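Methods — Computational structure assignment.
A single polypeptide chain was analysed. Its primary sequence is given first, followed by the predicted tertiary structure written as structure tokens.
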Amino acid sequence: MSEAPSTAPVCYRHPSRETMLRCSRCDRPICTSCMNDAAVGHQCPDCVKEGRRSQRPARTAFGGSRAGQLGYATTGIIAINSLVMIASAVLGGPRAIAGAGGFFGLLGEGTPLTDFGEVLGWATYGGQVHGIAEGEWYRLFTAMFLHYGVVHLLLNMMLVAQLGRYLETQLGPMRFLALYLLAGLGGNVTAYVFQPANQPSAGASTATFGLIAAVFVVNRRLLRDPGPMVPLLVTNLIFTFTIPHISIAGHLGGLVSGAAAAAALAYPKLPHRTLKQVIGLSALLIVLVAAAVFRTQSILG
């Protein structure tokens, strides 16, 4: 005599598994492998996905998304600087890496790549006139990715790794990149404005000084104690003013620009927070461009 067929419900995703559990949202039968704990009962995988799609993504106090926790922007900045250093060493040879002087003899010498992209107001070399005033405006951007040797690179990338991850988590990747680039640009513009026209400079330190200032601003906005950042700032300022061949103007310009960009990101509130942030950053960019144009006119005039 054959047994009567089972009438127990089966999991809608696994028809071979009998179950008495049901999704509290759609009421379909689910097995223990498919159930997900919910505020009330359990939910099936499809309802969990649907709930995530309809749920508003979590944002930080500055509008940053959860993507900032992954640190992609910080990692990308370090990777680009490292690749540019490798290219510079290939073009410049061993002395481009270290041993050419500066910072106790540990820095490298200039290379064709640094000659091409460093901050330079106006000068003649290679039988030609070069410089920002001569139309090479890209130098204000490229200089923040160039370094005179591996030690120079490592010192800056250590700060990017330490401060960048924190700021990217708070601001999100796009806002953090805007902060980093504006700080670097601000430092380079300041170097262009206040250094002799034929004095070159390069390095991510314009941007890293901006990151130091940004941590102060962000922590202040979050009502956190910025005190632990003071020794780092003081140490870097001591290096800036005591070690020869360091761009004082570039470092201070990056510090001020980073603080201004961070304030533009940290203090706007809802509604229209993103729009207010864009306006603040755009205003800073306009000021920097105006300063560079004024300096160009003074050199050529």
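Note: The chain has a mean pLDDT of 91.
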